[in-house]
Design a protein that fits this description.
Length: 164
């Protein structure tokens, strides 16, 4: 039974999450069972080219940052904290390390176990960083924080399909 579960986990869609400035790459599993529509939208969005985003760390939320997608030429109806997208609504303080939210206009990431805000997220969890990459993901999140508050340089996040 354990072997069957391992094979089933390997069969799901996976994404690369790259942080080019820090040269960190992690792998995350899409949460297709709980958020099939949002995962399909993300998967189709990154079909032909990666999704490149500018990272922005919140000062008060803890181990949490947003990655803003360049706006499209035409308006995109995306989630807000007042009206989140997706099947499930999440309070930021209830999220676990490695969970990534998607709103159609940004992705957000929890990279550690210290998230303090009892606010509703704008999106829903579409990906979970694989456990073996959580330490690297924490380093990437710390790099985002350091870039914004110490060095004042841009840090980016790039999401692409992992199909190999």
């Amino acid at each position: 039974v354990r072997k069957i579960l391992e094979v089933m986990l390997e069969m799901g869609k996976k994404i690369y999450v790259d942080f080019p400035e820090s040269k960190i790459r992690v792998v995350a599993d899409l949460c297709e069972e709980t958020e099939p529509e949002m995962c399909e939208i993300l998967w189709n969005t990154i079909k032909d080219q990666p999704l490149r985003m500018a990272c922005m760390h919140t000062m008060s939320t803890g181990h949490f940052f947003d990655a803003k997608i360049r706006p499209s030429a035409s308006p995109v109806k995306s989630g807000t904290q007042a009206n989140p997208v997706g099947r499930h609504k999440w309070f930021l303080c209830d999220l676990k390390p490695g969970q990534m939210l998607y709103t159609l206009s940004e992705m957000s990431a929890v990279y550690g176990d210290h998230v303090t805000e009892p606010l509703q997220g704008s999106g829903t969890v579409v990906a979970q960083v694989q456990e073996c990459y959580l330490e690297d993901f924490k380093k990437a999140g710390d790099f985002v924080w350091n870039s914004q508050f110490i060095t004042h340089t841009l840090s980016t996040m790039v999401v692409s399909r992992k199909e190999d």
